[in-house]
Design goal:
transmembrane; transmembrane helix; NADH dehydrogenase [ubiquinone] 1 beta subcomplex subunit 4; about 80 residues; mainly alpha
């Protein structure tokens, strides 16, 4: 042992590490994982993009520039 110290493994940590290393074999798409994937893969990025575009538009108005058209941001959205 290192420095004469005894090693005592943590059962819960070992289980978590095993599941993390082998998640490809244990992962299943179900209602909960599909909902999580849709929220974090589609809705959150869309809302972040819309917020960023609205900030660009606000800065354009503040600077007296004409509004720019961004991907999916045509029209008068506020």
């Amino acid at each position: 042992m290192v420095g004469g110290m005894e090693f005592k493994p943590n059962k819960h940590l070992e289980e978590w590490l095993y599941m993390r290393e082998n998640q490809a074999e244990h992962f299943r798409f179900n209602k909960q994982t599909t909902k999580t994937a849709v929220i974090w893969g589609l809705i959150v990025p869309f809302l972040a993009y819309r917020f960023i575009v609205s900030e660009f538009h606000a800065q354009d108005v503040k600077a007296g520039r004409p509004r720019r058209e961004f991907l999916g941001a045509k029209g008068d959205y506020k």
